[in-house]
């Protein structure tokens, strides 16, 4: 596949699901309350989480609704989400293995549809139109953005060194090449943008934007940083093929050089909640 002709394929996050719970930092504890207050939720209605991954956002928001459906194109993500929900005793979430493009899939209507770092992987115009048709008249689309695999950029004064992300990216490039990988293809210019125009074309009004910056510092272990790397589409385990053990050994060696005790500290990134209404 040419480097400028990316198309979605089912290997996008192959092998990454088990690394999410270890390598991704949790969303802010105040996120659920922020969404609840902004939408005046009262525990009724249904939530649809599209591109739910292993359910990190789904399970955080599910208690705000009477029932929830999480959908994802990766079977491994759905299996991980089901396992995590079972462990947490959450029985009112239905998990469905399907793409956003397959909606509405006879799922009915919803008070809220949420997307967390997933919409850019989809046929955005198609999914925006289809999800809009699944929302109740007073429903809302909630987009949660922000980085969770790593902390915020900039200086901080941690108890331990920050992970050497520049060197990690250089190591990934040494194994996979200088152009960002994604599934079987490449993303030379990163993931697609233009979300605002697409949402307006689909019939949504100008959004409300809420920034959540708790400013927390988080201590993380070496295994957590390794899993953070493997949780990314650009360095998903399958991309390394037979060289996966070699890459992981080099990654662990690099991290040990940066922090001999295997501990790192980062400041959490700002999380943005964007609320679109039809």
Automatic annotation (TrEMBL):
Lineage of the organism: Bacteria, Bacillati, Actinomycetota, Actinomycetes, Glycomycetales
PANTHER family: METHYLTRANSF_11 DOMAIN-CONTAINING PROTEIN, METHYLTRANSFERASE TYPE 11 DOMAIN-CONTAINING PROTEIN
UniProt keyword list: Methyltransferase, Transferase
Any Gene Ontology biological process: methylation
UniProt xrefs under InterPro entries: Diverse_substrate_MTase, Methyltransf_25, SAM-dependent_MTases_sf
Occurrences of domain Methyltransferase (ranges): 48-139
Claim: Manganese is one of the keywords in the record: no
Protein name: Class I SAM-dependent methyltransferase
Record GO terms (molecular function): methyltransferase activity
UniProt cross-references to SUPFAM superfamilies, sorted A to Z: S-adenosyl-L-methionine-dependent methyltransferases (SSF53335)
Keyword Methyltransferase appears in the UniProt entry: yes
């Amino acid at each position: 596949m040419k480097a400028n002709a990316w198309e979605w394929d089912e290997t996008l996050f192959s092998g990454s699901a088990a690394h999410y719970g270890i390598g991704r930092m949790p969303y802010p504890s105040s996120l659920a309350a922020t969404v609840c207050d902004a939408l005046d939720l009262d525990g009724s209605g249904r939530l649809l989480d599209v591109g739910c991954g292993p359910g990190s956002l789904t399970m955080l928001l599910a208690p705000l609704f009477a029932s929830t459906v999480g959908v994802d194109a990766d079977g491994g993500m759905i299996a991980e989400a089901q396992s995590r929900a079972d462990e947490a005793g959450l029985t009112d979430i239905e998990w469905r293995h399907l793409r956003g493009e397959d909606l509405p899939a006879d799922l009915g209507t919803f008070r809220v549809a949420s997307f967390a770092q997933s919409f850019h992987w989809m046929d955005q115009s198609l999914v925006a139109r289809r999800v809009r048709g699944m929302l109740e008249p007073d429903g809302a689309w909630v987009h949660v953005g922000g980085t969770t695999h790593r902390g915020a950029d900039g200086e901080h004064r941690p108890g331990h060194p920050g992970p050497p992300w520049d060197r990690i990216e250089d190591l990934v490039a040494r194994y996979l090449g200088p152009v960002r990988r994604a599934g079987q293809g490449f993303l030379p210019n990163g993931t697609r943008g233009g979300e605002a125009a697409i949402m307006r074309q689909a019939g949504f009004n100008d959004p409300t934007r809420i920034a959540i910056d708790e400013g927390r510092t988080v201590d993380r272990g070496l295994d957590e940083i390794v899993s953070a790397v493997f949780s990314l589409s650009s360095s998903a385990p399958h991309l390394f093929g037979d060289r996966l053990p070699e890459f992981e050994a080099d990654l662990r060696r690099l991290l040990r050089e940066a922090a001999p005790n295997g501990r790192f500290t980062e400041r959490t990134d700002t999380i943005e909640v964007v609320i679109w209404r039809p």
